[in-house]
Design a protein that fits this description.
The chain has 209 residues and is mainly alpha-helical. 56% of the residues lie in helices and 8% in strands. The protein is built from 8 helices and 5 strands. Strand 4, helix 2 and strand 5 form a beta-alpha-beta unit. The longest helix has 25 residues. 16% of the residues are buried.
């Protein structure tokens, strides 16, 4: 962004696809020339793969793109950013950068850490037996470690809070198993099943990948 800023003409729009927003909202406006506007964006799409070889023509179709507009952004500038993401098929949601970082920690950042922890917890012998289920639940652990280090570093407080909430849920399952309360465990699994099926239905209806 710092390298591009001097070449941007007055009235130009800068946007991004960063996975954390608050740090960018605090830093990018300081380096932009007068009359150049920044509209933060985060499309909730993609995979563990990166680069041109991972491109897909319908990558954004039906998926959410989160905008976290800065105070004072002109309506016409924000309208251009909305049109950009709507034009590639995204469903636009707007919120503050603080709220974005809090929510995305729960549904993106912590899941990556969980997938990595699960892979690290499994023995090499067990890995030789792993099938599609294990591969599916740990797919994102194959993501770029340097990129994920940056993501977690720029959202550490929210990631820690989400990890603590996850620990509570894991503790509930551990307690149920220790007590032999398998009916209680089934109830926890059923609740998760219902929430997960709702996600599948929403994504199918939206045409998301």
């Amino acid at each position: 962004a710092a390298e591009a800023a001097p070449a941007m003409k007055r009235g130009a729009l800068m946007t991004d696809v960063g996975s954390t927003k608050l740090v960018l909202c605090q830093s990018l406006p300081r380096i932009l020339p007068s009359g150049v506007f920044y509209v933060p964006a985060h499309p909730m799409a993609g995979s563990e793969r990166r680069g041109p070889a991972a491109a897909h023509e319908n990558l954004f179709q039906g998926n959410v793109c989160i905008l976290t507009p800065l105070d004072g952004t002109p309506d016409d500038v924000l309208g251009r950013a909305r049109a950009l993401w709507a034009g590639v098929g995204s469903k636009i949601v707007e919120m503050t950068p603080q709220r974005h970082d809090e929510l995305v920690a729960q549904i993106s950042h912590v899941p990556h850490l969980v997938a990595a922890a699960l892979v690290n917890a499994v023995s090499e012998e067990a890995m030789q037996l792993a099938g599609g289920g294990f591969a599916g639940v740990t797919r994102i652990a194959a993501g770029d470690p340097a990129m994920w280090r940056d993501i977690i570093e720029t959202n550490a407080p929210n990631v820690l809070q989400a990890l603590e909430a996850l620990s509570i849920r894991i503790g509930e399952m551990q307690d149920a198993i220790r007590r032999g309360d398998f009916a209680g465990l089934e109830s926890l699994l059923q609740n998760a099943q219902i929430k997960r099926m709702t996600l599948d239905e929403r994504r199918t209806n939206a045409g998301g990948r």
